[in-house]
Amino acid sequence: MGYQINAKGWCILMGILSISIIYVNASSVERVEGNVYIDGKVGIAEIDENFICATLDWWPPEKCDYGTCAWDHASLLNLDLSNPILFNAIRAFSPLKIRLGGSLQDKVIYEDSKLPCNQFKNKPSEMFGFTPGCLPMKRWDELNAFFKKTGPLIVFGLNALTGRIYNPDGSASGAWDPSNAESLIRYTVERGYPIHGWELGNELSGSGVGTRVAANQYASDLITLNHRLIEIYKDSGHKPLVIAPGGFFDAHWFSEFLNKTQNNNLDVITHHIYNLGPGVDPHLIESILNPSILDQEAATFKHLQEVLESSGNPAVSWVGEAGGAYNSGRNHVTNAFVFSFWYLDQLGMASKYNTKTYCRQTLIGGNYGLLNTTTFVPNPDYYSALLWHRLMGKTVLSVNFAGTKNIRAYAHCSKLSKGITLLFINLSGNTTVQSNVVYNGTYERNETGNVRSEYHLTAKDGELQSQVMLLNGDILTVSSSGEIPPFTPLHVNSSEPIVIGPFSIVFVHMPFTLLPACQ
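The chain above was modelled as a monomer; its predicted structure follows.
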């Protein structure tokens, strides 16, 4: 029986490799051998059990970039919560972290009896081109009813600009006025709506986007928020995480902020990533496929960890928002198969530096959503995220790949077993790689398991800008009722090398490999 499974898996695997190079002249495909070296003695980092996170934003349909209006009805204020695909897409993670926030969050008023509840309107002279908007409590009730059914862990981004003065130099000064935020928090607690974390502000750190707030003032405001949360949640038995600043990493600003939020005032420090530049960049795909450019973001992760460790602050780091290419991304790039190369590489890289959670911009909305903005049909990155969530465990292993610079390789203890899961990303369109697995250190092989499970992801017709992803040669698509498809692996003889086709992504679950780090 084992031989039948393995032979069948090998035949299907060869078919996948053929599919993945349809657009390449077969004679131009080079076969390269390589080794992936895994140190399984101890883990090098640890992520949250629910590492995958996605955002929901505030942008109205009138939000446009480069002549394209890509947001439609994907705002927290107008998203169709009755859509079955949206429902099933969130439920499939059980749970998915969802961060509610974005550029306009510092212009959102929460409906109460003291303030009018007006909606966002276009006004070019205003910061981000819109007037302040309002979250009606009726809509907040609707969102929470939806969250109760779908089960996500909710992080809410609070307006951090209330009460401040805008200065001619572009900064905002003065203390944060927490009264309106407090009204929302109390309303939320009174109705028993679970919140995983409250995050203060969006992109106000360092040089800021739109405006900025000094680190010492921000730290004081964060402490104010924490004290209010302690008081409001004193009878609930559980206080949500206190999170900030949700901005771009600036070493000096972050250092000062961490040093002034000691004594457990801050639980999570968040930073944002748009390292590929503007969505309009005509060289965006070239950047995604360039290993040297992908490598550059490692410096940010490393530096942030150094700043955290030197501060002595017990807070952990998250990527609070990452869309790769700013200004809503780029259609048929940041919502296409090619973007999974960047996205999964980011997940792997962030994990190595003890990043506990990674929030993708967006779940839906713009040109970088995990779901199509108008049809709600999953884009390729949705399936990449879900596979990661189901296969990659908390403990991160040290990995090195030798053979070609176009292979990105990561390994974690598996979520499915006491074994391991590998992730390979092949950035080359004309190279098939055969990789052996080499263990640095003692490992034990489970003799009852002689096969591994492989999940090969490729683009339909080999077209990198396709929004259709294949798993082991079969199209991934929702059912007529909006159900997320199952992920059926290939079963391959464990003695065979792992084959990574051109422009492909491969997850490999190896349940028989029992490493000390994973026990």
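The longest strand covers residues 392-402.
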